[in-house]
Amino acid sequence: MSYLLFGGAFNPPTKAHIELAEYACEKTGAKKVIFMPSKMSYIEHDQAKNFAFLDTERLAMLESICATHPKLMVSDYELKEESQPRTYQTLCYLKEQGYACRLLFGSDKLPELKTGWKHVEEIAKEFGIVCMARYNDDCEKMIVDDSYLSNLSQYIEIVHTPKEYHHISSTEVRKQFLIAKDAIQILRDTLPKELHALNNYLFSEDNHEK
């Protein structure tokens, strides 16, 4: 029984990451899903994100999640490397550690295999790929219509995921986090210090208008 390697920024990890990982684990019969967070420097520079939680913060978030989800685990291998490892390198490392993995990703990554990835054929043939269909993507058609992907089709398993998780985005979570952070700072700057405790009151769910 193999594992699934789920790499990404997890900036931050969302309910979709957790429940889709568990769903893919169940559907493929994998032993566990291994979360592999990318380095902060890679997220900010190579992916050009305008905000990234620290490596230690994202690792702590994932460790907290995995502690209560027995089918999930997290590795800090990529975070500890001097530069961001390639996915193939990470898969080889995990195999050496006794974790034979298939690569797990969302269908938004499928078209990128022939343009932005290295060692794709080695990944597919030596390890295998599990693609989670999201956003109403017709992954089977995407593969059939692309000669490069068609040649790898026997190594790619498609998992059709529940639609309720298709709209959840780390990008939107980061956006709302920064808005909330700015709002709290405005309150601290404008309210007298004696009223700073009102922050908790104002942002309490019990005090939201219905």
UniProtKB/TrEMBL annotation:
Gene designation per UniProt: nadD
BP GO terms, sorted: NAD+ biosynthetic process
Domain (Cytidyltransferase-like) ranges: 5-175
Function field: Catalyzes the reversible adenylation of nicotinate mononucleotide (NaMN) to nicotinic acid adenine dinucleotide (NaAD).
Entry protein name: nicotinate-nucleotide adenylyltransferase
Superkingdom per UniProt: Bacteria
GO molecular function: ATP binding; nicotinate-nucleotide adenylyltransferase activity
Presence of the UniProt keyword Phosphoprotein in the record: no
InterPro entries attached to this UniProt entry: Cyt_trans-like, NadD/NMNAT, Rossmann-like_a/b/a_fold
Any single Pfam family the record assigns to this protein: CTP_transf_like
Recorded catalytic activity of this chain's protein: nicotinate beta-D-ribonucleotide + ATP + H(+) = deamido-NAD(+) + diphosphate
UniProt EC number: 2.7.7.18
